Request: fold
Amino acid sequence: MLSIKHLSKAYVAGKPILTDIDLDIAERGITAIIGPSGTGKSTLIRCINRLVEPTSGAIEFEGRDLTRLPRGALRLARRRIGMVFQEFNLVERLTVMENLLSGRLGYVSAWKAWRRKFPASDVARAFELLDIVGLSGFANQRADSLSGGQRQRVGIARAVMQEPSVLLADEPTSSLDPKTSVEIMQLLADIARARSIPVIVNMHDVELARRFADRIVGMAGGRIVFDGPPALLSDETLKTIYGGEAWLH
Reply:
């Protein structure tokens, strides 16, 4: 359903962040991308929906190469790619409900969006999702009144409001405490299973990746050095990914 072929990215010529990435994503399940800071995990995630423009390569999604789409066609394709951000990316002054409904902006006219006029079916779906993410009583609260974990739940619900074919999560637990991190990963896993959509999440926490991912992709130096099930992620492989071994003990 998503196929990345020979993807490379260099912000500065001759100094690639990503080098010749090949990655096929199945129609369901959680793929966790792990690796040290600076190895290109976030860049890879953001290349998929072209928040970062790839330098070369192809990203085939639902039969089309996203790297070649003009702006209008890319806007339509992005409706099918949900995104959960590390820093939540909510509109702080808006209510929880208004933030959720912003996930439908790609489906309504600019005039209706400006007037915040959404179909009743969208509002009903938003209330349903608030219940699913555990925020059923928070519809009218401003986003800036929420805790970090609550904000990330809103971010997840907003992404699901798009009815995506794939869900990208860019370090969704890095600013959260351990208990909340487990809850957020469980929520992503539940949504992936209930809606039969793939989730691609980059993360630093190896144990969280082992616990929740169906597949782990390990990156080092801008390249994929491991791709397999959590059970095959050995200490030797982790040393290849992260370097050294003192941190393992």
In short: The chain is about 35% helix and 25% strand. The CA atoms of residues 36 and 67 lie 26 Å apart. The mean pLDDT is 90.
